[in-house]
Amino acid sequence: MTCLKPEDRTPPKGRGVGRDFNAFDAMVPRLPEEADKAFRNGGRVKNNGVAPAGVYRPNYNILTPDMRSPEFVQMSTAAAISLGIMSGKMYRCSCTRCLNLLLTYPEGCRANCAYCGLARHREADRDYADRNFIRVDWPAVPMEDLVDIVARDGENSTFHRMCISMITHPNSDMDTVEVLKKWTDRISADQIPVSILSNPTTMKRSDVKSLKDLGADIFTVALDAATPELFDRTRGKGVSSPHTWAKYWEVLNDAKDIFGAQKFGAHIIVGMGETENEVLSLVQQLVDMGGHSHMFCFFPEKGSLMDHLPATPRDQWRRVQLARYLIDYVGVRVEQMTFDDKGRVRDFGLPNGELDNIIDTGIAFRTSGCPGKFADDISACDRPYGDSPPSDIASYPFQPMKKDIKNIRKQLKVNKSERPEN
User: Fold this and answer.
1) Which end of the chain is more exposed for a tag (fewer CB within 10 A), N or C?
2) What are the residues whose beta carbons fall under 8 Å from the beta carbon of 123, sequence distance 6 or more?
3) Distance (Å, rounded) from C-alpha 298 to C-alpha 134?
4) pLDDT tens-digit profile of 152-192?
5) CA 397, 403, 409, 415 torsion-angle sign
């Protein structure tokens, strides 16, 4: 067993070839179709009534059990391998430093985000617990069993952080509280701090405060889309989904007030149709608020409404990765950078020698997310191969080596002591 998806999950060759960025007009999702009534709201799972029995590994050939949070949670395949719940190994790394958990219900997530494998429109295609998410399967496990395993030796755990991912479901807010309580009752925040990946659509300011009071360390909001127009097209009315840009920013500002500086942030997916200038201006806005950006490279998730579209070209992704790191951790401002008429970065605002040194450390090209125990700019949430196949790594879940830096420079089109090519 491996936590890598087969290479045939990679988009067909030739799609988007020749582009060095994904333009807005080229990244239009399909329109969702509503499932037959019998399949809606987890109808198939609830009608079958199969009782859960311990760990459930996604399997399309058996009936999916009726599992619900807070008694059950799903976890990334990498986390399951790290815990010993599944066998397998990771390419060039020792799996993950973050225990990523996902709330689970037969009804699934009631949102319909265009790029997401968990979206509501898949009700007829796959039961919720069997759907792929960021390229991998998410086995389900009893929360009590999970806590038992980690609590046996929390001090020496391989995990640097745990993250609870909420979904759009009527019970998500109260069940997130219960999952957090089950964890913090047994495991100290000094041993393994907790992050919340929130669902602003169902949340009030008091919900944000409750999670802080219960011991959550960092609170994040998955904006995902970098502009209001993209948000509406991929997460809102454009795909019959309930999310709004205004509500997400309302809760993000609540998190700023309640969690404080360096303890809140936003997820952003690069390559869904925004310009580099737009996404980096958003990164600067978050930094000015006191927060951080956690970036993902767009990958056409199988079964999503955008699975026919091209992944983010590597040159676009590397430019944004590098510029985001400079803004988040080096103190460069977006106003110091220059952009061409298509919004692409053409100068990073640093002298050549300084830029060379930052590229050569490789940290800018690692997976970005909530910090672990190594350094503030090294993410615990390394999400191995969650946004690319290992044959064409987007976010490095390990420290890039010399051969990787050479490839990164080639993708950036930056040689030592040279600026990006025009």
Assistant:
1) C
2) 35, 39, 40, 41, 42, 108
3) 10
4) 988 889 999 999 999 999 999 999 999 999 999 999 998 99
5) positive
